[in-house]
């Protein structure tokens, strides 16, 4: 619907930057969007490559170990025991985010992950992934299960075998997100509001 405008999280350095640069290499952890298609098959593919879902329990609590939480790892909540800092810390600790959900959503988690320097493998047709991710990370919406598994494996195995390329990819994703999602200066917003008010006033006078 062209009348619906997806909202991306604004880039606030004080919020995202403390979690964006973790010391050392990232562990083989992934975060999968809960509505991702072929979730079971994709999770099995990731496990075969030595990856595990990011723990979803709040800091200091027991990690979720059920099959459901392993596959649909998006069970975090700002209203529960996990706060914003916990969420960003866990998301930044992932090496990959998978957003293979066909729902017409903005792809919020992809934008948040990008601001933390975590690449997302996504389907096309979502506002944030389409704006923020390089084409090699975007899969067609009509992808079959076998094609999705093969694509995920091909992408991840390439970057696992080439850590310098992964570092460049993570940096590119983060820089793109910071540039695109940086809010305009207050002066620009004020000027836009004044211009809109003046235009409305002129239209009213003309009537």
Structure notes:
By secondary structure, this protein is α/β, with parallel strands linked by helices. Helix content is 50%, strand content 8%. Strand 3, helix 5 and strand 4 form a beta-alpha-beta unit. Helix 2 runs parallel beside helix 7 and helix 5 packs across helix 8. It is globular. The C terminus is likely disordered.
Structural class: alpha/beta
Biggest sheet features: 5 strands, parallel
> β content, as a range?
5-15%
State the total count of DSSP E strands.
5
The succession of helices and strands, N to C, reads HEHEHHEHEHEHHH
How much helicity do the residues have?
40-55%
Task: Tell me the strand order in the biggest sheet.
Answer: 2-1-3-4-5
Query: Count of DSSP helices?
Result: 9
Span between N and C termini? 32 Å
> Averaged pLDDT, please?
79
Question: Brief description of this entry?
Answer:
This protein is an alpha/beta fold.
């Amino acid at each position: 619907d062209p009348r619906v405008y997806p909202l991306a999280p604004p880039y606030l350095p004080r919020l995202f930057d403390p979690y964006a640069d973790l010391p050392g290499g990232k562990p083989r952890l992934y975060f999968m969007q809960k509505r991702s298609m072929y979730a079971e098959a994709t999770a099995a593919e990731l496990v075969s490559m030595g990856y595990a879902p990011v723990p979803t329990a709040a800091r200091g609590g027991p990690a979720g170990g059920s099959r459901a939480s392993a596959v649909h790892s998006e069970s975090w909540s700002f209203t529960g025991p996990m706060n914003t800092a916990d969420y960003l810390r866990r998301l930044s600790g992932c090496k990959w985010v998978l957003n293979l959900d066909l729902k017409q959503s903005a792809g919020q988690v992809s934008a948040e992950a990008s601001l933390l320097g975590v690449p997302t493998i996504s389907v096309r047709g979502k506002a944030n992934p389409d704006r923020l991710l390089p084409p090699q990370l975007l899969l067609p919406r009509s992808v079959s299960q076998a094609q999705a598994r093969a694509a995920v494996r091909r992408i991840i195995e390439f970057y696992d075998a080439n850590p310098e390329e992964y570092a460049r990819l993570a940096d590119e994703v983060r820089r793109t997100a910071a540039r695109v999602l940086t809010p305009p200066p207050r002066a620009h917003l004020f000027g836009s509001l004044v211009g809109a008010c003046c235009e409305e006033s002129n239209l009213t006078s003309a009537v």
